[in-house]
Amino acid sequence: MYDIEKTYKPRSISSLLDAMEETGQEGKIIAGGTDVVVKLRDGALTSKALIDISGLKEMQFIREIEGKVQIGAGTTFSDIEEHDLFDGRLKGLKEGAMEVGSPQIRNAGTLGGNICNASPAADTVPPLLALDTTVVLCSKKGLRSMKLEEFFLGKGKVDLVPGEFLYYIEFEQMTREQGLGFEKLGPRKALAISKICTAVFIDLDQDLMINNIRIANGSLGPNSLREREVENILKGEKLTEALKEKAQIKFKEVINRRLKGRRDVDFKEEAIRGIFREALEKSIERAMEKSKEGIQ
Amino acid sequence: MKTINLKINGRKRQIEIEENERLLDIIREGFHLTGTKEGCGEGECGACSVLLNGKLVNACMIMAFQAEDSEVITIEGLGENEKLDPIQQAFIDTGAVQCGFCTPGMVLSAKALLMKNPTPTKQEIRRGISGNLCRCTGYEKIVEAVELAAKRIAETD
């Protein structure tokens, strides 16, 4: 049985920082509770103090500033699902958010929680990696930022120092000729932990030259990760059917090498070809969408 | 121990909670509102679904202290006196209730869906109740009930 001795419900970032300082190693931040409460109950988490940030408005925002999109760590999956910023080229992020759990979990669970839990199967993380997202961390010493990719230190581990929390994330707003695609394979529609999820960001010019491409996977390693070997096959090349097939074969090779010896390797190396292809096609479709007037 | 204030089913209440308690625990044991059920205790079944500040959540995954100053609606908060909520009535009329354990959560999921989307398609209904498990009905009757409720609500408006 877990044993919580103290609880905090800070109303501002400065009181959040105070609560974190006061509780030190015993303190655990809780937002939607969809992971923390379950972990407390099964003994995976033994914190003595909980600090609730679910009511902290300062951490709940989706905004565009100087060509960048910023999302507060306290933003829920439902907030992302309902925001029209993610209807067009950026739809891959919304598709990731919509795959999380169930309506109840999407209403409570947050983007920050999805990142900081560092689950290999987090549905919103591959799209964020494909967007080359930066995390902005906050402590009493001020703000610190780093690439999301570097923030992950292994399964369940992120690079947060004591007294520090994830404040918001940011990435470059999409421009014309760019698109984000996402696809997930899970055992059933709702509440399914993903077996594979893949996100593709593409920058494709009118002559179908791939100026840039970033591919990220979930559930195919200790954390979600970028697939640079596959990216390198595609980057700077002209998009053709033959190139797509070459990239699919490369992907299969990469997964085979990584998962060798695991019982699901045969399944996953085949499945990735299809999932990747779906995500790639969606990204291409979005990159080629005519820009709506007034919106990039 | 600590004391929190919250509004539950429209009434302002004050309650003493233990730091360890979940929202589900105080709803059932503190307020004796036992319509909210505990099934799996880990967010898979939706039997403990309630509306927290107007949003559908699993009360088993929220700590009681987090609900301070919030507004909670449980199944007991639907309908008035002898008059059931149109969703509840539609569940009865359609035969969407069998053992009844999932029903409070199902009804609240339907409520949350219809508040946001008064004219859902079958597929949208299925997505709306995708966080609630039912082991009796096979879901068909539940989907029909939500359709019927949507229709009746539209007719009375």
Q: What do you see in this structure?
A:
Chain A is α+β, with helices and mostly antiparallel strands. Chain A has 3 domains: 6-52, Uridine Diphospho-n-acetylenolpyruvylglucosamine Reductase, domain 2, CATH 3.30.43; 57-172, Uridine Diphospho-n-acetylenolpyruvylglucosamine Reductase, domain 3; 181-288, CO dehydrogenase flavoprotein, C-terminal domain (Enolase-like, domain 1). Chain A contains 11 helices and 14 strands. Chain A has helices at 13-23, 36-41, 77-82, 91-98, 103-108, 111-116, 125-130, 148-151, 228-234, 241-259, 265-288, and strands at 6-8, 27-30, 49-52, 62-65, 68-72, 134-139, 142-147, 152-154, 157-158, 165-172, 178-185, 196-204, 210-218, 225-226. Chain A is globular, with a radius of gyration of 19 Å. Chain B has 2 domains: 2-77, Ubiquitin-like (UB roll), CATH 3.10.20; 86-156, DNA polymerase, domain 1. In chain B, strand 3 and strand 4 form a beta hairpin. The interface between A and B is medium-sized, with 30 and 30 residues.
What are the SSEs and their pairings?
The complex is a heterodimer of chains A (296) and B (157).
Chain A: E1 6-8, H1 13-23, E2 27-30, H2 36-41, E3 49-52, E4 62-65, E5 68-72, H3 77-82, H4 91-98, H5 103-108, H6 111-116, H7 125-130, E6 134-139, E7 142-147, H8 148-151, E8 152-154, E9 157-158, E10 165-172, E11 178-185, E12 196-204, E13 210-218, E14 225-226, H9 228-234, H10 241-259, H11 265-288
Parallel strand pairs in A: 1-3, 2-3
Antiparallel strand pairs in A: 4-5, 5-10, 6-7, 6-10, 8-9, 11-12, 12-13, 13-14
Helix pairs in contact in A: 9-10, 10-11
Chain B: E1 2-8, E2 11-17, H1 23-30, E3 49-52, E4 55-58, E5 71-73, H2 86-94, H3 103-116, H4 122-128, H5 140-156
Parallel strand pairs in B: 1-5
Antiparallel strand pairs in B: 1-2, 3-4, 3-5
